[in-house]
Amino acid sequence: MLAGHYAFSEKARIEMETDGLTELDVAESILSAVAVSKVLRSTSTHRKRSGERLYVIQSTNLSGLLIYTKGKLVVEAESETYYFLI
User: Fold this and answer.
1) Which of 23, 41, 52, 82 could make a disulfide contact with 6, Cβ separation 3.0–4.6 Å?
2) What is the mean pLDDT of each run of 10 residues along the chain (86 residues)?
3) CA-to-CA distance for 42 and 44, rounded, in angstroms?
4) Helices (H), 3-83
5) Taking the model in full, what pTM does it have?
6) What DSSP element (H or E) covers 6?
């Protein structure tokens, strides 16, 4: 995250816009989190890999706003990218 290795799905961008959140709000929330709330296995048939791990994080940004995120780690070109889904 600190190195900028993250991306947002189109759905995540739409939900952020609807909720009035910026990329910075979401990044602050992830960076201030003390733990991953839960790890899920994807059951979606639209995913590239069946059963991929999805990470749920609930934390506040620096203004104290509680933000719920779900994402996955994707390995691309020898680096890991956290991909926000919602």
Assistant:
1) 82
2) 82 96 95 95 74 93 96 83 80
3) 6
4) 10-19, 23-32
5) 0.80
6) strand 6-8
